[in-house]
Amino acid sequence: MSDNPFTGKWIYRSLLNDPGINKGFNDLEFGRGTIEIYEDATQLLAGVIGGPGWSLKLKGSREYGTPMRVRFQGVGLVSGEQWIYDYEGYLVNHWPNGVQQRPAIVGSVIRTIPHSGGTPGSASPAGVVASFYAVKAE
User: Fold this and answer.
1) Model pTM?
2) Of the candidates 91, 84, 89, 90, which has an alpha carbon nearest to the alpha carbon of residue 128?
3) For residues 2 and 8, what is the distance between their CA atoms, to the nearest angstrom?
4) Could you tell me which residues come within 8 angstroms of residue 126 by beta carbon, excluding any fewer than 6 positions away?
5) Helix (H, G, I), strand (E, B) or coil at 93
6) Which domains does the chain show, CATH number per domain?
7) pLDDT tens for the 138 residues of the chain, in order
8) Residue 21: helix, strand or coil by DSSP?
9) 3-class state of residue 74 by DSSP
10) d(CA 12, CA 136)
C-alpha cells in the first residue's frame, strides 16, 4: 500500500469564481473529468486528467504538511491544439466525527495558455482562474 494519499482515481469538478449569488450552478461549470495519479518518487506527482474529448498529462510535486499540498501542470493536445493548465490543491483534513467522509482535494486552476472554445468561433483566454475539488473514487 502506498503512503502517498494522492495516488489513485479522483472525480474532478471546477467552478468559475463568479460572485453572483443568483448565478445557477450549471452556469458556473468550468470543467469536469477524472484525475488518475500514479505512484512516483517521494515528492513527485505524475498522472492524467481528462474527460470526454480531452486528456492532459500531469507532472508536478506533492508536499507533506497540514494540509498536504499538490501542485501540477496538465499539458496535452486536444483536437490538435495545445492545452496547458496549472493546478494547486490541498488535501482536506479528516474530521474526527465525519460520517462517510471521502478524501478530497480542494484548490485553484488557471488556464495557462489560450485555446479555442467549445463552440465554433468562441475562445478560451489565458489567465482564467477557477476553483476545483476532486473526490477520491477508489
Assistant:
1) 0.92
2) 84
3) 10
4) 111, 112, 113, 114
5) coil
6) 8-136 (2.40.128.30)
7) 568 899 999 999 999 999 999 999 999 999 999 999 998 887 899 999 999 999 999 999 999 999 999 999 999 999 999 999 999 999 999 999 999 999 999 999 999 999 987 666 678 999 999 999 999 997
8) coil
9) strand
10) 9
